[in-house]
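Give me C-alpha cells for this 551-residue protein.
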Amino acid sequence: MKKTLSINLNGVAFYIDEDAYSTLKSYLNDLSKHFSDAEESEILKDIDARIAELFTERLNNGNKTVVEMQDVEAVIETLGSPNQFDVDGDEKEPQSKADEKKEKRKYRKLYRNPNDVILGGVASGCAAYFGWDTTLMRILFVLIVIVGFGWFIPIYFLMWIIVPEAQTAAQQLEMQGVEPNLENIKEYIESDRFKESVKRVGSRTSEVFLWLFKALFILIGSIIGFAFILVAICVIAAILVIIAGYSELFAEFIPYYTINNTTAIILFGSIAVLFISPAIGLIVGSIRLLQKRPNNTRRSHWLGWTLFIVWIIALLTVIGIGISLNNELPQSIKRQIHHSFSGMMVEETRNVPQFNSLQLSGNITAYLTQSDSTEVSLRCPEEITDKVKTEVENGQLKIYIDGKDWISDDIYAYIHVSDIDEVVLTGASELECLTTFTTDNLSLKLLGASDADCNINVKKQLHIESAGGSSIDLKGYARHAEINLIGASDLDAEKCKFTTCRLNATGASDAEIVVSDSLWVTAVGTSDIKYKGNPIFVSQKSGGLSSITKK
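Here you go.
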C-alpha cells in the first residue's frame, strides 16, 4: 500500500502518492537550482501555479483525488526539463509561419487580460484570443453597443463574470496561443519585467472604474434578476393553474389557437426559462462580486455556459412555436358582407378563371366537389340563362341573377375546384359538399336563411359566421374553429371534431359540437349550446335564458 502525502502548490492543496511525490520533489529541486537567482523567483512562482493548474485539470478529467506517478510524468513532459536551457538556442529548428499558427491555435484560450484593462479586460482578452489589435476590438465593441441599442452591454458584463482572468504567466501565454512550458514561461517573465511599473500605474485608474462598474452591476443585476424571477414565478404559476384545471381564468389573455395539449405548457415553460436563466446568472454574479469569490473556477465556468446554452434552447423553442402558430393562422380570411344581391343562377357550363373563394346570392343551390380541374356548370329554366351571372373578381367566384323579377327554386350550380378558402351564402342560398373538402383554412359566412351541408377536413383554422336563421350541418374535422352565431342560427357539428373551438351564440341560436382539447363558449339570450368530448381547457359564459351543457 502506497503512502499518500499532502502538498501545497500555489495555495492549492493536493494529495499525492509517495513515488509521485519523490519525482515531483526532484523536479522542483532541479528547477530551484536552475532558477537560483533572486530575480528569477517569480519564474518559480509561475511554474508552481502552472503545475497546480495541470494537476487540477488531470484530477478533474480523471475523476480522482490523488496525484499519481503518471500525472507527474505528464506534467514534466508538458513543461519540459530544466536541462533544455543548457542547449544552445541556435540548435532549434525554425518553424514555418503555418506551423506557428497551428501551434498558437492549439494552446490559445480565452482569458481577460489584466495587463490591458479598461473595463475588466474583456476586449483586450478577446483581441488576444482572435489575434486582433486591441484598439480595433474595442472600437468593434462600441459599434455593437451603438448599433444594437445597448443589448450587448449585459452580454459584456456576463463575459466579465464568466471569462477567467489571466493571472499567471502560464495563463498569459495561453491567452496569446503560446505553449506554457518552462522555456516560454522564463522568456515571458524576463521580457515582461519592464511592463510592471506601467501596469501598476494603469491599474490604479482602472481599479476605480472597475469597482464603480461592479457596484453598478450588483445593484442593477440584483434588481433585474429578482424582477425576472418574479415574472418566471408568475409564468410557472400560470402553468400549474392550467394543469390543475382552472385554465378558464386565463381564457381572455391567451390566444386560443396556442392551447393544444402540451404546446402551451412547453411555450410557457420556455418563456419562464428565458427569464430564469439570466436571473440566476445576474444574482449569482452579484453574490460572487460581493463575496470577492474567484470567477475562474471550473464550477463558475460551467455554470455560465450551461445557463447560456439553456437560454438559447428556450429562445429557439419560443421562436419555433411562435412561427408554427403564426403559420396556422389563416392568411387570407376576408370578412366582406354583401347585401345588395338578389339574383338567380342558370344552367350551362361556364368557362371561368381560377378562383379560391365562392359567393352565392339569391335562391340558388350549389354542389361543391373538390377535383384537380376547375369547372362551373349551371342548371336553370332556359328563359333566364342570360340573366345568370358567373364572374370572378379578385379570385372570388360570384354567382347571382341580374335582376329582381325572377323567383324560382330550380336554379342549381355544380362547382369543381381544387381548393377554396372562403364561402359566402346570402339570400336563402344553399351549399352542399358532394365530397370531403380538404383545405388549410376555410371561412363560411351565411346570411338570410342560407343553408350549408359540408363534409370538411380543415388542417388549420375554420371560421364560421351565421346570422338571420341560417343553418349549418358539418361533418369531418377542423383543427381550430371560431364560430359566431347570431339570431336564430343553427349549427349541427355533432359529426365534426374540433381540436380547439371558440363559440359565441346570441339570440335564439342552437349549436351541437365535439371538442377534444380546448373550448371557449359564450351564450346570450335564449341560445342553447351542447358539446361532447373531454376538452382539457373549458371556459364558458352564459347570460339570460341561455344554456351550456355537456352531453
